[in-house]
Amino acid sequence: MSVETPSDDWLLRVEDLSVHFHTPRGVVQAVDHITFEVRPKETLALVGETGCGKSVTARSIMKLVPEPPGEYASGSILLRSPSTGAVIDMLTAPMDQVRATRGDRIAMIFQDPGKALNPSLTIGRQLAEVFGEHRARMLLTQAGIDPDHAPVGSGAIASQRAGVIRRNFFHLTHPGQSRALRAAVDDAVINALSDTGIPNPRKVMSSYPHELSGGMKQRVMIAQALACDPDLLIADEPTTALDVTIQARILDLINDLQQRRGTAILYITHDLSLVRQFADRLAVMYAGRMVESGPALEVLKAPQHPYTQGLLAAIPRAGTPRGQLAAIAGSVPQLVDPPPQCHFSSRCGWSAEVCTTHVPHLIGLPGERKVACLRFEQASSIGVEEAEMPLRAAHVEVGP
Amino acid sequence: MSVTLDHQNVGQPAPSSGGDVMTLHDVTVHYPVKQGVLQRVTGAVRAVDGVDLSIRRGQTLGLVGESGCGKTTLGRVIAGLVPATGGDIWFDLDEALRSRMEHLRSVPAESMTAQERSEWATLQANHRLGAMTKERQRVYRRNCQFVFQDAFASLNPRQLVRDIVGRPLRVYHEATGSDLDVKVINLLERVGLGPQHLLRYPHQFSGGQRQRISIARALALNPEFVVLDEPTSALDVSVQAQILNLLVELQEDLGLTYLFITHDLGVVQHMSDYLAVMYLGRIAEVGPTDQVFTDPLHPYTKVLRDSNPSLEGDEVDGSAHLRLTGTVPNPIDPPQGCRLHPRCPVSQPECGWQVDDMFLSLETSTPASFDAISRVERSGPFAAQLVMADDASARHLHDEITNSRSPFGRAVESITLNGANVSIRLREVEEIPLIPVSPGRMSSCLLSGRPGGITPPSESR
Question: Is there a single domain that holds both residue A103 and residue A249?
């Protein structure tokens, strides 16, 4: 279901996406009408605390949210091919198209590399699966076999679907081609591994995940994700499980690979201090909604939404007097059948009557910035008295 | 090897009450590694391997390090949850007792006079962990409490908050019945909860509230010293800020002493008066927090600081920072000399290079040479005879090592080639102790005292 759209410069466009989970206690609105886009070659950081829906958003883009209990309640996730301009909607596209897209055009790195790798397969086998799934023809060509007239069995072997008997049979009947095919797979895997700075990739290839350290496993995950040169890499807290020194090296690596390949990155994290070094644009989520977005450095310099302000002030840093961190009082609200209100109103210092009855919408500010707060809304546009509105925000000059 | 922390040297002047809550001398914790059918002990994981530290009354000592460096084990030893396998830990020593203890410890047991012997015995019975009398042990237990990292696992899911927080009071016969409820409510109010939470189960609370319950339980007996083992690492920043504020407020009100264990440098910088940086079971650096951050003496501290993403400062190019290479070595067989040297960006020939380091670097840099090694006869960590597959690869290895300008290459004292045999001897280095560098600051890096310090040479950037 490809449609042609005007050639704006975008790669991924999430429009009005809502993801709900049906639980015995009610419907959890994990993601609630969010809209954002990722442009080619940029890094968009999606920031928020536990339970704000950032991981669900990431998984939705890969269409990995299980249905049921999950449900894509509204919206679309459009992925555009940078070369042809063809657009697919991940939510409505047929499953085989979604499968072809996953891992090939969109790849994902998960939080815990220890859990994301299969413990019973060698690293080499796991990486070969990616090539088999998406690049079987390339492997055949490299092994000197014409993919259109490939001998029986070689196609299955290249796509890593052949069992041991089939592989051995093929090896007996076509020894030369079998050897060439193995070499082609090994070469592809070794290239992918050495690209991520793994020393001695031949040894790593034949080891199992438990033999590697956490940082090394994350490198393998990155190699796997970038194997097919995706247009978009979704990194879901890739360094949370790692120590700071390893984290710094993994971030350097991701940065470096992005420079070389021009991959766009959707970087999901709870750590605002990572965003500063790393992201071009920033989107802050709270309780399933997007509350603020804009160029990363400017949002960090002059946050507009009370939640972003609170989040930044809560980070301990040099110079804050001890014991005087600006903590945000209260805790994140439950998202089971929530009332139509600003979810932050219960913890917000500016909160007024209208905040508990109206849902704020993202309002454009100068300099490509957006904020969803009723302090920026006109009383007339939502049809209430001026007196019920929270104190209006002084429009801070943003942008250069 | 150990150098004792000289009290006058360490940090700011002690508060009026003075003295140390805990004094550690050469503390080790080795966990045995058992193998085979008979479960024979074949080695030991050196979780904590020779730590000297003193925790001053009324202050916060931050203990930072990466996972597996032994910081949690050290915290547990100090809290008496894990017995130390070596060294001694002293509780509640004031200035005078401390210098007396240090004097007596240096006297060999056989040359002690009868008076000294009895004084030593009294000192141990009153202050030394593991040798205390029963009454003193009770005093120590009351005064040393622990807040665990995982507030989900450290609260009994079958008990009500009243029972969890009231348990220490009951054990120490402080209160029973309605009196207990009143005391528990007081404690809950102290940590920002209320009477409505008294009859709830842990699962009914959020992460931040659970950590508050843990803190209330730790404070139940009015301790003077609390070990906080990553109390906020499972929490979101906004909730973390609440807990950190609470901890500071409690410290000011109750005059508590904290040992704050964490891997988060931002948090430790905010919370602690002085800082101990741990790497692989040993202390790399100790000093006042701000000085350690602004001018680290140990390359590991510098790497940690530079790796920590920051919200401030100018745009920095990540490659300009120091980075560690490789991975954390196995604590069963830690490196000789300085523990950091195989990964250190500014390592020197004197840092304790050993034969194993050669294998490690060969394996990653020139796998061909590594694969050509057919047999190794070791004579200690610093010397070995390698039998290579053929003469050519032996010559190649020999040339590679002799021509190397790396710290390892310069640490080679002798290397001889004999057919396919290469025998190599490296400079022998003792374990590098923690040395006082400037008043209040200690470091276990050879470069710390030298002019230029740990600034890397420009070509290694």
Answer: yes
Q: Is B99 near chain A, with CB under 8 Å?
A: no
Residue type for position B264: D
Residue A309 in contact with partner chain B when CB distance is under 8 A:
no
A93 and A151 in one domain? no
Put simply, the answer to whether A213 touches B328 (Cβ < 8 Å) is yes
Q: Are A106 and A144 part of one and the same domain?
A: no
Vertex B33: Cα angle to B32 and B36 (nearest 5): 130
The sign of the dihedral angle between the CA atoms of A334, A335, A341, A342 is positive
Q: A325–B323: do the CB atoms touch at under 8 Å?
A: no
* Straight-line distance from the first to the last Cα atom of chain B, in angstroms, rounded to the nearest whole number: 33
Which pLDDT score is estimated for A154? Answer: 79
pLDDT in tens, A17-57: 999 999 888 888 889 899 999 998 899 999 988 888 888 99
Structural domain includes residue A298? no
CA dist B341 and B444 (Å) reads 11
Instruction: Supply the ipTM of this predicted assembly.
Output: 0.82
Rounded Cα distance between A375 and A392, Å, is 5
Which positions 187-206 of A are in contact with B (Cβ < 8 Å)? Answer: 199-200, 202-203
All residues of chain B having their beta carbon less than 8 Å from the beta carbon of residue A250 are none
CB contact under 8 A, B323 and A248: yes
- Rounded average pLDDT over B453-458: 60
Domain that holds residue A266: 12-114+227-283
Q: Which amino acid is at B118?
A: S
Q: Are residues A240 and A186 in the same domain?
A: no
Give the pLDDT mean for A364-370.
Answer: 86
Cα radius of gyration (chain B): 25
Please state, rounded to an integer, the average pLDDT across all residues of chain A.
85
Biggest alpha carbon–alpha carbon distance for chain B:
86
Interface contacts A/B by beta carbons within 8 Å? 127
Interface residue B208 vs chain A (CB under 8 A): yes
On whether the CB atoms of residues A77 and A12 are closer than 8 A, the answer is: yes
- Residue identified by tokens 């008076």 is B115
Same domain for A110 and A231, yes or no, is yes
**pLDDT band, very low/low/confident/very high, at A394 (cuts 50, 70, 90):** low
More confident residue, B461 or B78: B78
Is the CB of A323 less than 8 angstroms away from the CB of B252? yes
Task: Examine residue A6 and state whether it is found in any structural domain, yes or no.
Answer: no
Evaluate whether residue A339 is within a structural domain: yes
CB contact under 8 A, B318 and A274: no
Does the beta-carbon distance from B236 to A50 stay under 8 Å?
A: yes
List of residues 6+ apart from B402 with CB closer than 8 A = B409, B412, B415
Whether A109 and A22 map to the same domain: the answer is: yes
User: Contact A50/B269, CB-based, under 8 Å?
Assistant: no
Report the residue of A256, A272, A322, A348 to disrupt the B interface, i.e. the one with the largest count of B CBs within 10 Å: A322
> Which chain B residue has the Cα nearest residue A255?
B318
**pLDDT exceeds cutoff 70 at B319:** no
- Answer yes or no: is A1 within a domain: no
- Show the CA angle centred on residue B96, arms to residues B92 and B101, nearest 5°: 70
pLDDT of residue B63: 94
CA distance A244 to chain B (A): 6
Tens digits of per-residue pLDDT, B33-72?
A: 888 888 888 888 888 988 999 899 989 999 998 888 888 9
Same structural domain for residues A54 and A141?
A: no
B365 or A365: which carries more pLDDT confidence? A365
pLDDT digits (tens, 9 = 90+) for A251-289: 888 888 888 888 999 999 888 888 888 889 999 999 889
Indicate if the pLDDT at residue A5 is higher than 50.
no
CB contact under 8 A, B248 and A322: yes
- What is the count of structural domains for chain A? 3
Q: What's the confidence (pLDDT) of residue B15? A: 41
| Spatial separation of the C-alpha atoms in residues A363 and A371, rounded to whole Å | 5
Q: Which of A49, A199, A252 sits opposite B364 (nearest CB)?
A: A199
CATH of the domain at A91: 3.40.50.300
What tokens appear for B360 in the block? 């490690």
CB contact under 8 A, A271 and B309: yes
